[in-house]
DNA sequence: CGTGAAGTTGATATCCTTCAATCACCGTGG
DNA sequence: CCACGGTGATTGAAGGATATCAACTTCACG
């Protein structure tokens, strides 16, 4: 997708969706300057929350710089839904749902989040084409991901959902780190369930069924391998989403540095 | 503003979400100039389709100028999911999911759609702050709607989904046309089912249950009233979304006229 | 080890789907 | 004008899938 300056694109057919920087782990995140007044680093323990309180004009946002978090909602009666998983490099902007719905960012594991507050520069940025294009790209990408998840939640059964989820993690980790032999599954059954619109027991049952089928082999409770990725792909009626690493963050960083 | 857990949350003023123009029915749509070379009006009969063809750079889009359409996807095995309903005034941009997934706009009733092709002006518009801000606003709004639908599909049961759907239509029609006594339900059971992640028989069953409960009264198969909107609101654990009329179209029109 | 939290498994209930039959509506053609 | 046929809607019966509740196991960590 993003060429190295001058170099020819090498066999672009299967496109991992990652810029070369992301693939090499030297993307925008590593050059984030920590000492500027508009940014603040927040460490979240597993389960820690960051709540949205408006105003919702997208002049504040958060980049997950370490770990994995989740955009969560709950209803009054306690039902919880994970609207999206925010991996390292993902950019979360303030307005994620109606202001009245309870909505927050929750660390699924040890996390570091960089909070940007651009309200002081808002008037300038609102007319800055580069900044606008960057935020557009980010929101646009989030929209396509969300829409695919609508189809997933509306029409896939539990086994398809879990398989798709596991395959997505594999895809993600092989794109970022092709050498790593196993994929980590750091989320709890409860979290997976809330992400997939199921409950924890169902996730557990489906997981054992998948283990027995041989499509996925678990080394322990949090690491697995997928011996035949193609077989999994055939079992799932949708495309397995490509990760986008820290590209979003990079785009944004370049826009308003 | 985001705060660490525990901070107080701002209570938003009740806002119908409509610009004055939309509320008075004299919004951008009525001044759409029909004879410019970059736009083309398309009439769709019920069930008619408009398929998205690349490239997916959002330099092509469609405004629903009459009627109601749906952003649809299907899987290889025929399962269909309506990703979103596009009411009059909604702006649909080309890339709505991964290019490989089958995805199209389908008329739920007699429709008129205005297709804009800005590819010839793309290079200029890519740096035009006003245009960028407008497309950002549109995509951003679509994202919030999509994320609420994720919660709906993941966590609401069939009755809650149908009630929410009916309430949303009522809300929409009272905001646009407070004098109209009844709300029209022009979608077929099949369409409603594909929108709510159910099947047609379930929708039918739930509707008769809702009728019996008295929450909704049907005058005939396609018109209903909701005698006690508050009672419905109490039955549904989420906010009932506000319509946004032709505001999106207006924003866009002003940006690149 | 001991303890608590997370995960697994089983029994059962509930919800939703599937399949099939019937009904209601609507336009068409005799 | 009315019989006819087609399509969508409704309803019923049965089955399947997922949720719920409860018991038990495993694991992490002191």
Describe the structure.
Chain A is an alpha+beta fold and 257 residues long. Chain A folds into two domains: 24-153 and 243-256, Jelly Rolls, CATH 2.60.120; 157-235, Orthogonal Bundle (Arc Repressor Mutant, subunit A). Chain A is 36% helix and 21% strand. In chain A, the strands form three sheets. A four-stranded antiparallel beta sheet of chain A has the order 1-8-3-6, with no helix packed on it. In chain A, strand 10 (217-220) and strand 11 (223-225) form a beta hairpin. The longest helix of chain A has 27 residues, at 129-155. Chain A is globular. Residues 1-15 of chain A have low confidence and may be disordered. The interface between A and B is large, with 63 and 57 residues. The structure holds a DNA duplex (30 and 30 nucleotides). Chains A, B: Residues 156-230 form the HTH crp-type domain.
CATH superfamily of the largest domain in chain A: Jelly Rolls
What is the CATH first-level class name of the largest domain in chain A?
Answer: Mainly Beta
Shape of chain A: globular
Give the name of the CATH architecture of the largest domain in chain A: Sandwich
């Amino acid at each position: 997708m993003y060429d190295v300056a001058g170099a020819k694109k090498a066999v672009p057919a299967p496109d991992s969706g990652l810029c070369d920087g992301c693939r090499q782990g030297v993307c925008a995140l590593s050059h984030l300057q920590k000492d500027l007044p508009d940014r603040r680093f927040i460490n979240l323990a597993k389960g820690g929350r960051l709540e949205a309180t408006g105003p919702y004009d997208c002049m504040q946002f958060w980049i997950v710089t370490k770990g994995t978090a989740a955009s969560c909602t709950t209803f009054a009666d306690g039902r919880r839904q994970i609207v999206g998983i925010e991996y390292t490099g993902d950019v979360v902007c303030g307005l994620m749902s109606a202001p009245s719905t309870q909505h927050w960012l929750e660390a699924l594991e040890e996390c570091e989040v960089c909070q940007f507050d651009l309200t002081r520069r808002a008037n300038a940025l609102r007319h800055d084409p580069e900044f606008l294009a960057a935020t557009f790209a980010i929101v646009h990408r989030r929209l396509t991901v969300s829409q695919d998840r609508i189809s997933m939640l509306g029409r896939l059964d539990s086994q398809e959902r879990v398989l798709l989820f596991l395959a997505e993690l594999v895809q993600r980790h092989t794109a970022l780190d092709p050498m790593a032999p196993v994929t980590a599954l750091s989320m709890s059954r409860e979290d997976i369930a809330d992400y997939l619109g199921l409950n924890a027991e169902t996730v557990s049952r489906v997981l054992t069924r998948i283990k027995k089928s041989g499509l996925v082999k678990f080394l322990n409770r949090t690491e697995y391998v997928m011996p035949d990725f193609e077989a999994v792909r055939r079992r799932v009626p949708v495309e397995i989403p490509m990760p986008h690493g820290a590209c979003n963050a990079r785009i944004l960083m370049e826009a308003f540095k």
